[in-house]
């Protein structure tokens, strides 16, 4: 099970750089989703990331200005999957099948559990199960992910869990990342 951190949409480049540096050893991927950044900020961030020796993968969301300049993995929150492959957000089996037709390498689905930002929104459990049953690509669950709920993502069969506020707004993201990695490792060895 992969661990994905997703930027909040209101982070400054220097904030995100610190968080990525702290999560490098514990997380598999970080998603850059910052619609208020300028193209110049995005390009400078891409350059900074490429100069590092990180093992954490950077996935750039199409909502981020300048995403077209990113040579790595791109995530499409809506519309078609990038020509270079990448991921797509889905909320139903029909959207999953469309994403797979478009050659998505992975999909992000949810909310799995009620997120802090929208506590009344959740994808019905039967729809989650149907998406997971039909998927031929990895499905990253998002919504309500934190250490105490990681087992639900694992038990339901998600390929990964996407964390927003539980990690990105933590006082010590690196420490939270280590705890989540240990919990993930524990779950995967049961």
Automatic annotation (TrEMBL):
Q: What is this protein called?
A: Thiamine phosphate synthase/TenI domain-containing protein
Coiled-coil intervals in this record?
none
| Alphabetical GO biological process terms | thiamine biosynthetic process
User: What Pfam families does the annotation carry?
Assistant: TMP-TENI
Instruction: Show where the Thiamine phosphate synthase/TenI domain sits.
Output: 87-166
Q: Which domain of life is it from?
A: Bacteria
Gene3D superfamilies, per database record? Aldolase class I
């Amino acid at each position: 099970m992969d661990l994905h951190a997703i930027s909040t949409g209101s982070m400054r480049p220097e904030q995100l750089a610190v968080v990525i540096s702290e999560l490098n050893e514990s997380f598999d991927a970080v998603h850059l989703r910052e619609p208020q950044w300028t193209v110049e900020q995005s390009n400078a961030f891409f350059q900074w990331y490429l100069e590092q020796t990180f093992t954490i993968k950077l996935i750039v969301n199409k909502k981020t200005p300048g995403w077209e300049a990113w040579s790595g993995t791109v995530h499409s929150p809506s519309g078609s999957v990038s020509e270079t492959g990448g991921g797509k957000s889905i909320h139903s089996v029909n959207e999953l099948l469309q994403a797979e037709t478009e050659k998505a390498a992975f999909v992000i689905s949810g909310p799995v559990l009620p997120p802090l930002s929208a506590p009344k929104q959740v994808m019905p459990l039967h729809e989650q199960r149907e998406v997971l049953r039909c998927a031929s690509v990895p499905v990253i669950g998002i919504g309500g992910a934190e250490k105490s709920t990681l087992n639900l993502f694992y038990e339901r069969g998600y390929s990964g869990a996407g964390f927003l506020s539980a990690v990105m707004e933590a006082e010590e993201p690196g420490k939270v990342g280590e705890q989540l990695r240990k919990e993930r490792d524990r779950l995967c060895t049961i």
